[in-house]
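Holo prediction — DLZ.
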Amino acid sequence: MANLILILGDQLTTDISALEGADPKRDRIVMAEVHEEASYTNHHKKKLVLLFSAMRHFGQQLEQDGWRVHYQHYHPDNEHQSLEAVVSTLLEDLSPDTIITTECGEWRLHNQINQWQERLGVPVDTRTDTRFIASKREFADWAEDRKQLRMEFFYREMRRKTGLLMTPDDKPEGGSWNFDADNRRKWSGKPPAPAPFRIEPDTITRDVIDLVDQHFPDHFGNTDDFHFAVTHGDAQEALNYFIEFTLPCFGDYQDAMSDTEDWLFHSILSPYINCGLLDPLAVCEAAARAWYAGLAPINAVEGFIRQILGWREFVRGIYWLHMPGYAKENRLGNTRSLPWFYWTGETKMRCMHKAIDATRRNAYAHHIQRLMVTGNFALLAGVKPEEICDWYLAVYADAYDWVELPNVLGMVMHADGGYLGSKPYAASGKYIQRMSDHCANCHYKVSKSTEPDACPFNSLYWHFIDRHRADFEGNPRMGMMYRNWEKQKPEKREALLKRANYLLEHLEEL
Ligand code: FAD
Ligand code: DLZ
């Protein structure tokens, strides 16, 4: 016996660096479903099903490939309820020379594993996670000496590094780095949105659904109609389905929202990419091939690749550069508690109801719902970053601290003082009206701002602008907002602030 190789629930690939150079005859693998990981947040029930089932399938695959795998199935009465406890017991039984693992994605667990060598008395070899295109070191080098980090410049570096959508003479394909200006169309029902890709649960998944229903009844959401892929083969099918049916319209309707369609033209691949069932670079390459083959337009393919090569890598870099301090940032000084309707969806604001209800049913909401609806509301209402971050970490199947935290704390809440994004994504109801058909079905009137039935986003938006004058007035991208605010009559400004103050005192009733 030489090494004990730990594979975490989001490292489900034989390409994981912890397996590099390993010998199935000599080394052992440990995988464990443990209470500590399943309960550090109120994980959506579908996220638990996805991870436990995908872990079980991967464990079986490793055994079929000839590996000896110590796999702990979840049970509340298991003696060992943390990864450290499981590993520690195996050390007694197997006396390995080294524990090998790949760096984990969350600071919380990363910090624990860092202490194992001392606590458990066995060398721990923690390897770089090579699934990311930029290593932590590479990102830190890029960020060094830059006062402000901007995704767009980092993304161009990643395009050059990978050669994705680059011409042989190192120019961006299509003549531009970014086609975002073409990606802001409202969707009015045509072309029809494809049905989401579905996999019917097999015996393993059905067992896990029963387990989650029995042992995690108080967790958010439900297990009904679980249809996520849980194997590499099925996740690959999900990717093929996206490329063929959805990618062509991905760009046009990337920012659209709908009162009737949950998924629109999004890929729904993040749950698989994040847990190891799909490789991010291979996903980008598949999209690029579709463009070269003339199967999807450049605005769709470039927009899609930018999300993975740009945003996904960028937020991960920021997370590791600034943790653990980053999680404590609250530069706008927010103090409000998260309204309870985030957990129930019971609110008369149609857009919020639709986004939260989809989240409860699907463990999924697309980017614009996360950013411009539930996120925007939390920003305008001044919710404590810690509480809104914990909500996002809990409710989505793709949520892990490394990707959730910078998106919520940085991009949405601007709690890092503008380090991640140059201006807050604050918006009034007009934005939601422009990009969706929610407002036509809403109890509140988006055309009104001060009356009792006025859209809450409208006055809350101006309240945000007014109360954060010192934070944003000097921001060149916000100057116009302050000029618009000043242009309004004093009585109007007063009425807007009065209405907003009333709403802030009665958030739970909205
Ligand atoms: P698509 O719209 O099809 O995009 C393609 C891929 O690009 C995604 O699968 C994802 O891998 C990547 N991507 C897109 N935007 C981002 C981004 N901002 N950051 C990182 N990757 C991105 N993504 C997560 O994976 N986990 C999270 O916990 C998470 N929390 C978020 C919270 C907020 C408030 C916001 C605004 C965004 C968050 N995102 C998160 C990013 C994004 O919303 C999701 O990646 C996306 O909605 C996943 O759905 P999809 O696969 O259909 O994405
Ligand atoms: C998210 C999660 C859950 C719910 N359960 C487990 C588990 O039982 N065992 C495990 O190894 N990993 C689990 N994970 C993922 C980890 O909590 C953690 O988020 C990632 O490993 C961070 O990279």
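READOUT: The beta strands are 3-6, 28-32, 68-72, 98-102, 124-127.
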